């Protein structure tokens, strides 16, 4: 995703600069990169990068969204190892569940909860790359669902909407970028027709008051030592000392923790539930977290 996005943005950015420079020239101007054969031919598989209607091309520009409806992120829920982002159709009670990966859900929750990292993670890097070449995400479209797999496109353009292109993407990456740029998200009407009210997960009634749950969960979170923080600091030091292989190793450790560390995932889910006022869910996740800690400690003692 990063390679396609950066290469596509850079290609279009260079083409825009060169074409504007040669308009008054008698020589040939560079070809539009979106028309290059390496991006696909008529009848071939869907193009990775397309020029939008604002600059000619695929007919899906900002003025051609009649087949789409806008959606907002209702919530991101992590339960029993599964991550789901619920997209609410604007103006209705219907939501659409989109299953996403563990790494992407952690990145999305961290951005929604405004948890800043010492160093940029993948989607932060994508945002920084786009901004450095003068582009921003203008909108995201979830275009289709085939064999239970959603497809999306990310629209990027220069300030004022010039040189807009749209890039093939997974919805999880597209939504992460939309949140970081504050860009609207649209979904095809044919998909939105299947929207239903968000499922209400039933958690055992707690004898604790909401204030007690908030205090207890915050104490639990305060006692958690995030393993990615040390890796981030070690990676930053390795980069400064030009130990790039070590820096890569630390980055891999960060990704592994965010993807496989059950305690970290429970912590992120607790923070999200607390921020959204889902107090019974937060209490349930807190209890799961404590049980997981006890199981880990028991396993460590047996290993000695």
TrEMBL record:
Function: Bifunctional nuclease with both RNase and DNase activities. Involved in basal defense response. Participates in abscisic acid-derived callose deposition following infection by a necrotrophic pathogen.
Protein name per UniProt: BFN domain-containing protein
Region described as Disordered: spans on this chain: 23-64
Classification via SUPFAM superfamilies: Hypothetical protein TM0160
Pfam families xrefs: BFN_dom (PF02577)
Protein family: Belongs to the bifunctional nuclease family.
Signal peptide: 1-21
Keyword entries, A-Z: Signal
BFN domain segment(s): 68-199
Gene3D superfamilies: Bifunctional nuclease domain
Positions with biased composition (Polar residues): 23-39
The species this protein was found in: Tetradesmus obliquus
